[in-house]
Structure formats: structure tokens, C-alpha cells
Amino acid sequence: MPTTRRIDVVLLAVAVVWGSSYLTAKTATDALPVPTVLFVRYAVGALACALLLLRSRGAAGRLTRDEKVYGALLGLTQAAVLVLETYGVAHTSAGNAGLIISLTLVLTPVLDRVGLPGRFFLAAGVCLAGVGLLVSGNGLGAPGTGDLLMLAAAVVRAGHVVLVGRVAAGRTLRPLQLTAVQCAVGAALFLLPAAPGLPASARVGAATWAQLLYLALFCGLFAFLAQTWAVQHTSATRAGLLLGTEPVWALLVGTALGGERLTVLSVLGAALVVSGTYWGQAVERAHRGRFTPAARDAAPHRAGTGLTQAS
Q: How many CA atoms lie within 13 A of 7 on its CB side?
């Protein structure tokens, strides 16, 4: 397989894995309390990172002061994102969750205080209109609790992405080491809230444990490291387009495997969210490229990507 195609396959696999994470998390929270799911997810991720670091030789396996300090800071914001996402997806459909969280892509430049042309805000308006239709179900009405939590998660995730960019500027922060610290922080944060539900985790079936391992190892560690490798060998535009298919996969997985039902309004809303997101990305990328040409070749940020992974 040609190198370019192999990179595309890896990026598409990351998008599929992230898109499937919403249904996986939703199913896992049907069997276990949210704090328990989050603790196990973080603890397994921390253990996997520790094993990888132990295999490294010399300084490669040691954490620097910056990686400890900024990893802890980003671990707090990442934990906030995952709390909102996991509680949100537990109270809405996996398809809705994946589409609403994609608003991160248009919220991030706004929070990053990038001067943007009017076309960008038109694109953001298209996204918001799509969300309105998406959460309306069979008729227009107020969004549910889960939809509002996912919207809050998109805002917090956008802030997390901006923080990642600010922290990474001018510092050498290695992805695996930073991820290891964030996982350790998350496991520590959720240990006490998860404690009452831990005995139940020993009694759940193999399917639930498979979901927890999938969230930790595939939606977390694999997706992050695969994306880090791939974006070093392709353009930001190509990577952004492939990773931007995540909400589409979330919708497809939710309907095909989760038995979620699509209405005419939800299909129209999904189309508006995806179209508005791509339009907003294109406007922001072109605008940023006018003033900082090097930015056109920079790796794309995602909440929880670039240096961290939050899905």
C-alpha cells in the first residue's frame, strides 16, 4: 500500500474510533456509574502509558518538570471535558453527541481570539441551526439535558484545545509523557467518586469490560499515537478533512449498531452541522494562512489532540 494511502487509512481509522467512542461510552454507562467508567478508563490508560515508558531507555522514559506541571494542568481540563461528555452521552443519542461535540472545531478559533471574517460566523450559525434541528427529535422543542451537556462539553473542549496550544508554544512536551501524566491525574481525580461503583465493576460481564478497554486503549492511546504519527507525514488540510469525518461515523455507528432512529429533521440537522463545520474550518484555515503561512502546515488541533486526546 502506498505511503500516502496508508497515512489516510490511519487517519480515517482514528476518526472511526473516535466516532464510535460515543456509543461505546453510552453502553458502558448503562452498566456502570459514570465516575466508575471514567476511573477505569483513566487507570487503564495510565497503566498502558507506564508500560510503554518503562520500555523506553534513559531520558526517553523520564518525565521533565514541564511535562509534569503542564500535564497535570491539562489533565484537569481534560477531565472536565470527559465528565461533561460522558454524562452527556448517557442522556442523549450517540449520534447527537458526536455531532454536537463537533462544534469544538468552530468554537476553538473564537476562544483563541483569532480575528475572523464574517463568513466564519455565518458557518457557525449554520452549525447552531443544525444543532437546533438535531436535538428537536420529531418536532421543534427544547433540547434535552444530554444535548445541553454535550454543548457545554464542546465549549470546554474548545477551551482545552486553546490551552494545549498556549502550553505547547515554545516548550518541548513529548506526547506519550504528557498523556501519561494526564491519565494519572484523571485516575486520581475519579478514584473517590468511583469507589462506590468499583465492586460492581468486578461483576459486570466481559462485554462491558471490552467496552472499557476499547475506550482506554483504542479511543485513547491508540488514536492519539496514531494521529500524532500520521499528521507528521501529511498536510494539515488532508488530516483535518479525514479527522473531520468523526461526527459522520458517530451518527452511522449510533444508527447501525445502537439502533438509534433518524428523523427527517435530525438528518437535515446533521447535514447542516457537518457542512457548517467544514465551511468554518476552511474559512479559519484560509484566514490564518494569510497572516502566518507556516500555520498551513501545522498539525490540526482537536480537543484532546495535538498533544492530548479527550474522546
A: 16
